Amino acid sequence: MMKMFESSKVLTVIGCCLMTLALASCGGKKEEAKPIPVVVKTEVANEQIGFGNRTYVGVVEEESSTAVSFTGSGMLTRVYVSEGQRVGRGQLIATIDPTQARNMLRAAEAQMAQANDAYNRMKQLYDNNALPEIKWVETQSKVDQAKAQLDLARKNVADCAVHAPCSGVIGSHVMSAGETVLPAMPVATILNINNVKIKASVPEKEMASILPNTPTRITVEALQTSYQGGRIEKGVEADPLTHTYDIRILVPNKGQQLLPGMVCNVEIKGSGLADHDNGGVTVPITAVQQGADGDKFVWLMVSGKAHRQQVQLGASKGDRIAVSSGLKPGDVVIIEGFHRLSEGTAVER
What we know:
With 349 residues, this protein is α+β, with helices and mostly antiparallel strands. The protein is built from 3 helices and 23 strands. The strands form 6 sheets. Strands 3, 5, 8, 10, 11, 12, 13, 14 and 15 form a 9-stranded antiparallel beta sheet that branches. The radius of gyration is 42 Å and the shape is rod-shaped.
């Protein structure tokens, strides 16, 4: 009887153990282990011009400049503008002492009054046929001369103030009150910076590859901004010492943030991508895979998972190759660790 009781007890213990194992097994199914992400190395696709580019140091220049000067001479009494100030067409720039011009105006007015008085007196005689024709013609000529002198004197007074002939920004050349100016001597310079030109010096052996419509990118560190360059003007005279030629790249200056004198980097597209105006997205050659069907593809990291992206390729240079379609700026390309990937594999950097 005792043996039967002990056997029953053993069976009970075994049953409890089996139930515990079963419950543990069920609990394991509910808490499935998360897959371990594959560690990869990535690179963000950037909208660059490409590879094989050449970079030069450039300087921002105004598109055009206009010198503001007086037609007469005199001492500057006041300058109403300063360097870097934006001015509009017709705005007062500076004035010179008008004393001499006003004295000449008063003299011309007196001469005009005298000529008009003589004219009125002689006209009465002429109307009564009491004045020779030659005297009448002489009287009319003196009136015309006096009027011309008066007009000139009035203009001289008006020219004691000079106004902006166009809109723009005042350049660095600004004279000060108290200085003496001469005719055509610049008092200030107005710079047109609605568009600017980027000047860079290019070695003579590289000039042949630069065309008027060659893509360029201008990077200004002071503004932490990049600009797309426009048409290129090529110089025709080389510097006798450095054997370089000047080029000027037209850049729209919306907001007029680009100011003359700013230093910038000029990146000119290399000839290796001349037939692929695709924004210049490139990837390492080793990141490009070939599928069983022969199509080329790269692996992208999208929301923490691997995604196979088919691409069309362009020219290659060095260890990089251009992607003409399939990628866009901002795509995260997996460049290392992709050999263990499949569609949807969890990845991390």
